[in-house]
TrEMBL record:
Keywords: Allosteric enzyme, Glycosyltransferase, GTP-binding, Magnesium, Nucleotide-binding, Transferase. It comes from Sellimonas caecigallum. Belongs to the UPRTase family. Its cofactor is Mg(2+). InterPro entries: PRTase-like, PRTase_dom, Upp_B, UPRT, UPRTase/APRTase. Residues 6-208 form the Phosphoribosyltransferase domain. The gene is upp. Pathway: Pyrimidine metabolism; UMP biosynthesis via salvage pathway; UMP from uracil: step 1/1. Allosterically activated by GTP. The keyword Nucleus does not apply. Its EC number is 2.4.2.9. SUPFAM superfamilies: PRTase-like (SSF53271). PANTHER family: ADENINE PHOSPHORIBOSYLTRANSFERASE (PTHR32315), URACIL PHOSPHORIBOSYLTRANSFERASE, CHLOROPLASTIC (PTHR32315:SF4). This is Uracil phosphoribosyltransferase.
């Protein structure tokens, strides 16, 4: 069973609340999202398995540790999820990257896939799905469903800010997925934005507003 992990870390909280400020510009916002992603990656990889390896230091030979088993993949949900990729790659440079693109059908309001490109061996990897904002949970839940349909079994979801409504949807549809949240906010407003939130993460990362 997956779990909900709200990261109660002073440095993380400081950075998240800093970029909520509407006067923070695109360059600074993008850089700090990258830093936040690094910190979240550190926490989200706490359960990765290690195996013994013999290494030679300048002093002697010893039994050390290295990551065992499955390799990792990062799958951002386009487009805001792209802002979290570089921070994770700083921590795990060998990770492969996939991409999932979804849009909301204006009539049904259901997420529709328009792009999906994954590493060929994605089903054998630990996959980190990333999106800065978990609002209604519709896109995130749909993206994880797509991954499962393609045979991916080991999935973790990382978001910077979440609303309770999105967390509930994810718990209901994907109870087996671990969810890592920087800060859990109060609610969604009538437009589906997280309150107090930070606005549209994609617009703020890419400077499109």
């Amino acid at each position: 069973m997956g779990g909900i992990h709200v990261m109660d870390h002073p440095l993380l909280r400081h950075k998240i609340d800093y970029i909520r400020r509407k006067e923070v510009g695109t360059k600074e916002f993008r850089e700090i999202i990258e830093e936040i992603s690094m910190l979240m990656c550190y926490e989200a990889t706490r359960e990765l398995k290690l195996e013994d390896v013999e290494i030679e230091t300048p002093i002697c030979t010893m039994q050390g540790k290295e990551l065992a088993g499955r390799k990792l993949a990062v799958v951002p949900i386009l487009r805001a999820g792209l802002g979290m990729v570089e921070g994770i790659l700083h921590m795990i440079p060998a990770a492969k990257i996939g991409h999932i693109g979804l849009y909301r059908d204006p009539e049904t309001l259901e997420p529709v896939e328009y792009y999906c490109k994954l590493p060929a061996d994605c089903d054998k990897r630990e996959v980190f799905v990333v999106d800065p904002m978990l609002a209604t949970g519709g896109s995130s839940a749909a993206a994880i469903t797509m991954l499962k349909e393609k045979g991916v079994k080991n999935i973790r979801f990382l978001c910077v800010i979440a609303a309770p409504e999105g967390v509930e949807k994810m718990k209901k549809e994907h109870p087996d997925v671990d969810i890592y949240i920087g800060v859990l906010d109060e609610k969604l407003n009538e437009h589906g934005y997280i309150v107090p939130g930070l606005g549209d993460a994609g617009d703020r990362i890419f400077g499109t507003k």
